[in-house]
């Protein structure tokens, strides 16, 4: 039963990543593209956590935590660049 739920959720998250990639490529404005990239980080974290559940290893959870930290920092840096034109004051 868990294998079926994991397979369905993996397929849905992969579909969400593909739709986010489309929004990232075809977004009408830069804030839309930043939001699509941020959502891709969240979806990739979910994908890695599901892969960790499926393969029953703890290594994937550490990778998901690392991607979460990098995703947050990069989103803040890009937003700060868009607002002020400079990352470091």
Keywords:
single chain, 89 residues, mainly alpha, Helix Hairpins, 3 helices, 87% helix
Topology:
Elements: H1 2-26, H2 30-55, H3 59-84
Helix pairs in contact: 1-2, 2-3
Polypeptide structure, described:
The chain is mainly α. It has one domain: Orthogonal Bundle (Helix Hairpins). The protein is built from three helices and no strands. It has helices spanning 2-26, 30-55, 59-84. Helix 1 packs antiparallel against helix 2 (30-55). The chain is flat, with a radius of gyration of 15 Å. It starts with a helix and ends in a 5-residue tail after the last helix. The model has no long low-confidence stretch (mean pLDDT 90).
Instruction: Give the helix level as a range of percent.
Output: over 70%
Q: Distance between the terminal alpha carbons, to the nearest Å?
A: 53 Å
Number of strands: 0
Q: Which structural category fits the helices and strands?
A: mainly alpha
Major sheet size, sense and barrel closure:
none
Name the assembly state: single chain
Number of domains: 1
Basic shape: flat
Question: Architecture, CATH level 2?
Answer: Orthogonal Bundle
Given the structure, what is the number of helices?
Answer: 3
| CATH class bucket | Mainly Alpha
How big a fraction of the residues is strand?
under 5%
Radius of gyration: 15 Å
């Amino acid at each position: 039963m868990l294998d079926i739920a994991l397979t369905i959720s993996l397929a849905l998250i992969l579909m969400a990543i593909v739709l986010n990639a489309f929004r990232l490529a075809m977004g009408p404005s830069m804030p839309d593209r930043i939001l699509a990239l941020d959502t891709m980080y969240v979806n990739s974290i979910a994908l890695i956590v599901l892969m960790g559940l499926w393969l029953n290893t703890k290594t994937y959870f550490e990778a998901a935590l690392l991607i979460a930290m990098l995703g947050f920092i990069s989103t803040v840096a890009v937003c700060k660049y868009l607002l002020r034109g400079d990352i470091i004051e």
